[in-house]
User: Which sequence fits this backbone?
């Protein structure tokens, strides 16, 4: 069996993407019509936008890009994608993300694209982790404000993830 014809393992990122696509095909329309899921997705998108804006305004986005492009790699290293499960990937599909069939760089997270993460909904580790360089770059009071915004996004991710998980398991 060649790599292109091999069936991906359910535990590999390719297997998790396949599972998410299958869940989307079988449940996507009903999920999007469900009032609780739809309301959760609207709130989640607002929380994501607020957090991304705060990360941009605080200089974190620029610092991460510099680290990736000029210093030989960011925290988004190969293997981070293994933290993602089919349900979180399904939530990304519900928000209109497309999941790539291949990794851009062998040394980076599967989901790291040319302009950063290609996912809208990121794993809690990706949201919450701030390296020493970032913690030194951002003033303490700004970090506290940023972590408050990140907390709102994490709460929204958790709520939607659990709502979708419960819906799919019915």
Assistant:
């Amino acid at each position: 069996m060649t790599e292109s014809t091999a069936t991906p393992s359910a535990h590999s990122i390719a297997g998790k993407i396949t599972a998410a696509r299958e869940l989307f095909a079988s449940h996507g329309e009903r999920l999007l019509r469900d009032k609780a899921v739809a309301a959760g997705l609207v709130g989640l998108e607002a929380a994501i936008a607020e957090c991304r804006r705060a990360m941009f305004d605080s200089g974190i986005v620029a610092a991460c890009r510099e680290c990736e492009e000029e210093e030989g790699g960011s925290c988004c290293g190969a293997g981070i994608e293994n933290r993602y499960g089919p349900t979180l990937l399904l939530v990304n599909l519900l928000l209109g993300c497309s999941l790539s069939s291949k990794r851009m760089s062998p040394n980076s997270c599967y989901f790291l694209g040319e302009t950063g993460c290609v996912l809208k909904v990121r794993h809690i580790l990706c949201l919450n982790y701030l390296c020493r360089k970032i913690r030194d770059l951002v003033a303490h009071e700004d970090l506290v404000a940023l972590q408050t915004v990140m907390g709102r996004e994490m709460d929204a991710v958790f709520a939607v993830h659990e709502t979708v998980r419960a819906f799919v398991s019915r």
